[in-house]
Amino acid sequence: MAGCASSLNQSAGDGSPGLQALQPNPDNALGFESTASSGTQRDVQALGVPSTTTAGNSGYLVGPTDVLEISVFKVPELSKSVQVADTGTINLPLLGEVQASGKTSSEIEKDLTRKLGAKYLKSPQVTVYVKDHNSQRVTIEGAVKSPGMVPIRGTLSLIQLLASAGGVDRDLYSKDVTVFRTVDGNRTSQVYDIDAIREGKASDPQLRQGDLVVVDTSAAKSVLEHTLKIVPAAAALRPTAF
What we know:
It is a single chain. By secondary structure, the chain is an alpha+beta fold. It folds into two domains: about 1-130, wza like domain (wza like fold, 2-Layer Sandwich); about 135-225, Outer membrane lipoprotein wza fold like (Roll), CATH 3.10.560.10. Helix content is about 25%, strand content about 25%. The chain has a five-stranded mixed sheet. About 25% of the residues are buried.
C-alpha cells in the first residue's frame, strides 16, 4: 500500500493533479482531500468520460473476462482499464481486490466511490463503463446467415439476435426457432414461431446468458435446395449425343 501511495504522489505529467495535489482532510484516515471535489458532472462529461446510463449498459451484470473502463475525475493515477478476473474481482491501486462480478456498472461505481471516499479522497467522482462485453453471450446456429456467439449488452430479444446473425436464410429456414436454456443444471427448451412474433401475434422473448438458439430448417426447403444442387451436376455428366 505504501508503494502505491508513493507512486501516486508523483505528478501526473499531463496537467491533471495527482495525489500530490490533494489537501489534508481530517475527516478521512489518510488525510487526503481531492482538489477536484468541487467539479461538476458537466465537467466529467466534457472530458468525454462514458456515462453508465448508456442504453444497454446500466442493466448489464458484469462477469469474468469483461473489461471495465474506470475513471476517477482529475486523478489519472486511479483511472485505468481492467479485466474482471475469473474470481470475479478487479485489482485497483490503493483498493486492491474489489468484487465486480454480478454487479452493474452503476453498482461498481457506487462501491468504488464509497471505498475511495472512506480513506483516500473527499467526494470522489468515479465513472465505470463496460468497455468489452465478454462474459454474457448466447449462441445461434441453424438456418441463419452468420451463426456464432453474440454478446448480450443489457437486453437481447430473439428478433434482435436474429438480426445480429444477419437474418434467417430464407431458402432454408422454417418458422420455428428453438431456445435451449440451462437453469439450475436442468436443460429446458421452448419453441417460438418467429413469423408470429414479427406479425405482432406473439411476444418477442428476452434471451439470457448461455442460451442456445437454433433456427430450424424446413425439410421441404432443404430437399429442394439439395435437388437444385444435384440437377446441374447430373446434367453436366449426361452423355452428349453425336
